[in-house]
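Chapter review: from sequence to fold.
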Amino acid sequence: MSRLALAARFVLGGVSVRVRADARPPRLRRLLARWEAFPAWPRRRARLAYDLLARPRRPRLVLNGYSYRRAVEPEDLVDLLEYEVCTRVPALTRAVPLHAAALVRDERALLLVGPSGAGKSTLARALVERGFGYVSDEQVYLGPGGAVEGMPRAIGLDGQARAWPVPRALVAQAPVRAERAVFLAPGRWPGAPLEPLSAAEALARLLAACLRPPRRGDAEALAAFAARCAPLSLACEGVEEAAALLCAEAAARLSSAS
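The token string follows.
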């Protein structure tokens, strides 16, 4: 049996996961590596306790002792788990869940917002390698007042068999106020690669990135964030160019603030 820890600190008590399997096929091992590669947080009682019974005959997901989701293949349990965390965690918090990455520079968070395939994980890794702190590469939770938290899994990149574990020292240990949002557009488009967006356009894109149907108060919270986050649109072909642009932009903002 292998015990994994999910760093879902926005849930009181967190989330815990145990994996029980007679054998782990290679694909299941690769999928689980996104969780196993990350250092475990201090042990505490979880409100959401999952068991992944990854057995060939009856693979299923168990929550708090109750079996309620079956899978066709053991590997499917990881997708079920990620869907579960994505849908159940927001129900336990007032934060707005967004399909976005979040990085930290000078105790302020930068959100990278974009659809799947836009390059959030690749760019997040490039920024971490340049000294940014890490919150998440996939799901973030924007709370009241603009505080952001995430699920800091090891970063999995397309085409790579193993996930990349972020150094523990670079992982945000507490909620961080989000001060900037950059919306990723795959490929290069006419105009400058980094351009300002209106608050209205930023709000539309934030609503599109919401991981649940908007609830009462979500639109107002996102509108307030869009109005103060100085939103930017980023469109460039290479991750090195994108990372360099964002590093320069962060340095310029810090200089102007001081």
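Two observations follow directly from the output. Residues 2-91 form one domain. The chain has six helices and 13 strands.
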